[in-house]
Amino acid sequence: xxxxxxxxxxxxxxxxxxxxxxxxxxxxxxxxxxxxxxxxxxxxxxxxxxxxxxxxxxxxxxxxxxxxxxxxxxxxxxxxxxxxxxxxxxxxxxxxxxxxxxxxxxxxxxxxxxxxxxxxx
Amino acid sequence: xxxxxxxxxxxxxxxxxxxxxxxxxxxxxxxxxxxxxxxxxxxxxxxxxxxxxxxxxxxxxxxxxxxxxxxxxxxxxxxxxxxxxxxxxxxxxxxxxxxxxxxxxxxxxxxxxxxxxxxxxxxxxxxxxxxxxxxxxxxxxxxxxxxxxxxxxxxxxxxxxxxxxxxxxxxxxxxxxxxxxxxxxxxxxxxxxxxxxxxxxxxxxxxxxxxxxxxxxxxxxxxxxxxxxxxxxxxxxxxxxxxxxxxxxxxxxxxxxxxxxxxxxxxxxxxxxxxxxxxxxxxxxxxxxxxxxxxxxxxxxxxxxxxxxxxxxxxxxxxxxxxxxxxxxxxxxxxxxxxxxxxxxxxxxxxxxxxxxxxxxxxxxxxxxxxxxxxxxxxxxxxxxxxxxxxxxxxxxxxxxxxxxxxxxxxxxxxxxxxxxxxxxxxxxxxxxxxxxxxxxxxxxxxxxxxxxxxxxxxxxxxxxxxxxxxxxxxxxxxxxxxxxxxxxxxxxxxx
Lengths: 121, 496
Fold this sequence. Notes:
The complex is a heterodimer.
Chain A: E1 3-7, H1 11-23, E2 27-31, H2 34-41, E3 48-52, H3 60-70, E4 77-82, H4 88-97, E5 100-103, H5 109-120
Parallel strand pairs in A: 1-2, 1-3, 3-4, 4-5
Chain B: H1 4-39, H2 43-83, H3 101-131, E1 136-139, E2 145-148, H4 150-155, H5 168-171, E3 172-174, H6 180-189, E4 194-204, E5 211-218, E6 228-234, H7 236-273, H8 278-308, E7 317-320, H9 321-331, H10 333-338, E8 343-347, E9 352-355, H11 357-373, E10 382-388, E11 393-400, H12 433-443, E12 448-453, E13 457-465, E14 480-483, E15 486-489
Helix pairs in contact in B: 1-2, 1-3, 2-3, 7-8, 8-12, 9-11, 11-12
């Protein structure tokens, strides 16, 4: 069963994702801030990390950079989730490092599962 | 120069020749008499001596005549040589001219005035350009600086008294390293007489503080030194204000999107949970349709802010157009069916467009949304047709059998906030959809138009370029697959 880490501070959103991913056969875990998310991601046990850009503590983009730049041994695929417009520099950095980028308001939980299935396959 | 001076010069020359001839004749007669009286009575010797005297005096007088008559010509030649920048010839001293001084002076003045005229005009032009507080930069054929007015030197933080001939990029920084000179050449290749580059950040070489300009590029036709003239209009305040307002809009959109995400998510949950309850399920379907509308509106606000800020930069790739249209239709299915409508697709063939899927999807969604909104008075299907327009473009048409658009409103339908006042209270909308659609289609190099008959329906057509395999720089599958919801990396490229 694929392990998924959800780094999301908005409780209702993480609840929706938990429900949809569990129903789809994944094993999801939630981290409510960037520091906890980074700590869990660095254990290396997650196949996919759903990483919100705007989280308390270490920001999502910084978590992404630390994992991809400093820990090449971590093979997790990282999906950035956000509702925020990116500046050009951040956008370029995210495109370079992340495996996917989802605008949360544009996808339902079911559609998100569809994207994760595509990446997983 | 007075014309009488020439005839005066001719008369003076003739007079001098006459006088000198008369003198010479007197000398010859006097010499003959003197020889006969005091030197010899031998006729042959008399002739010889007299002839010698005449020859010598002729030589002297002839030289004098030539000297006098050619002096004006020599002075004029000297004046011409003096004007040559590389010559070391001194200016002619007209005071020393013995004859035809007026004539010579007039000619030389004429020559000087003809030569000085461009210098006077150039100096006058430069003086005027220096007084204008708009940086003006002249570039030669090699894009080296050939002219900088004072405002341009201030922009580059350069010495006001200095003269500069370096390449443009050695004196100025362009924000994001935009190659504005390459764009300038491309504009000239289109045979335009001038081009406009908007929102160009410029600074001096040693500064990182950019000032934003709209730059007009002119191509002077009769100027050898200046191949391109850049006239830079300061728009810094305007663009900075736009950045500020865009920042506010971005924040507002983010705050709206968070509750939207939650509402959408739980509407989907309810949709699943009420499958067995028809009545409840119908309510949930309407809820989902409304949430979709709201999400759509929020996205539109962001798009308009981007277009107003001229942030429409698209990254096109090979796009399966039929598939994209099908997905757009599917995404509007809930909304259409909640109003008892269906959307049919007719495609002439399978087409691949050169498009950016994320943004072009907005065009389809906007047109479909309009078709649904303005045909709620019937259950006639909305038709989407894909065909080729025959000039390397794909034409997509969205048509409905709804209430149509009054002819008085038609000229303005692609303007921002344009709404038909008759149905404003009845049909929800912001008047932004068609403005956004037009901006996106234009950014793709296509066109958009509409036909409508009030009471009978409307037809919206837009064109996109067909994807040309032969001109693709990277014809292989894209590294990033973009959609309206974001993007996914194409991991097939990363497999070993």
